[in-house]
Amino acid sequence: xxxxxxxxxxxxxxxxxxxxxxxxxxxxxxxxxxxxxxxxxxxxxxxxxxxxxxxxxxxxxxxxxxxxxxxxxxxxxxxxxxxxxxxxxxxxxxxxxxxxxxxxxxxxxxxxxxxxxxxxxxxxxxxxxxxxxxxxxxxxxxxxxxxxxxx
Length: 151
Hints:
The protein is α+β, with helices and mostly antiparallel strands. Helix content is 28%, strand content 15%. It has 6 helices and 6 strands; from the N terminus they run E-E-H-H-H-E-H-E-H-H-E-E. Strand 5 and strand 6 form a beta hairpin.
């Protein structure tokens, strides 16, 4: 399966049987993509990344459609230690070295790159224009081989 492309007879109405379970994936909520080959590539990457999960099961918990996944508070337990956050204005190099680097403590410096030109120069549209045909690693298969998909 890896490295093969579906035959023309497998493509119908913008969908494709890129995996053995593509018929079951059709039962899941239909994904809409701007380009016609994107669905096939996403299904291929999902199959290579986790061949033990059917494409229809990837969205069964709805994490991609639920806003609370990114906004819910983190629950700290005995294995989860909160990482301190400090504003960038407070983090001079010497103070950072003495309080965090020297003690090997993690810290999140908020707003540390807000002044970078890339923060205002780059958006999704600019990235798509520049890297539309570039392949990016999205995972690894069971043998450690890179799974790539175009932007």
